[in-house]
Design brief:
alpha/beta; four-stranded parallel beta sheet; two-stranded antiparallel sheet; 22% strand; globular
């Protein structure tokens, strides 16, 4: 049995910027029998639900209305990393394309639904600290 960090929205928690969730049955089924540690770095960093959408713009995270939420994103990422360390997690399954959780591709900061190569703030911090990060589309291809 593994301890696995999982984006709370993938588990059905209504914590996304739009107040919704994105439950993913493949993730939920694949992780049955494992200890799931739900995280939402944005909420853990102090942002409300719902909230204005955010994207990474250079080295900052900005809401579509221009509000700089870099501090909250960094704080939430650090809390998620601390949870991973405390729970000896070596795997995280996170929400694709998210400015906090996206792996490989995130929205480009133009709020036009255009993707660019890169990782979300939390995903990047976890990866830098040796935690394997998968997005929900990659879960089927792994053995736990």
């Amino acid at each position: 049995m593994k301890n696995v960090l999982v984006s709370a929205c993938l588990l059905g928690e209504r914590c996304r910027y739009d107040g919704c969730s994105k439950p993913n049955e493949a993730v939920i089924n694949k992780l049955k029998g494992h200890n799931i540690i739900p995280i939402c770095p944005e909420v853990m960093g102090g942002l409300p639900t719902p909230r204005c959408p955010s994207e990474i713009v250079g080295d900052r995270v900005l809401m579509e209305n221009g509000t700089d939420v870099t501090l909250e994103y960094n704080k939430g990422a650090q809390i998620a990393l601390n949870l991973a360390i405390e729970n000896q997690c070596d795997l995280a399954v996170l929400k694709a394309r998210s400015p906090s959780c996206g792996k490989g591709f995130v929205y480009d900061g133009t709020y036009s639904k255009t993707l660019t190569k890169g990782n979300g703030i939390c995903a990047n911090l976890l990866i830098k600290n040796g935690i394997v990060v998968l997005d929900e589309r990659e879960i089927e291809g792994i053995d736990l």
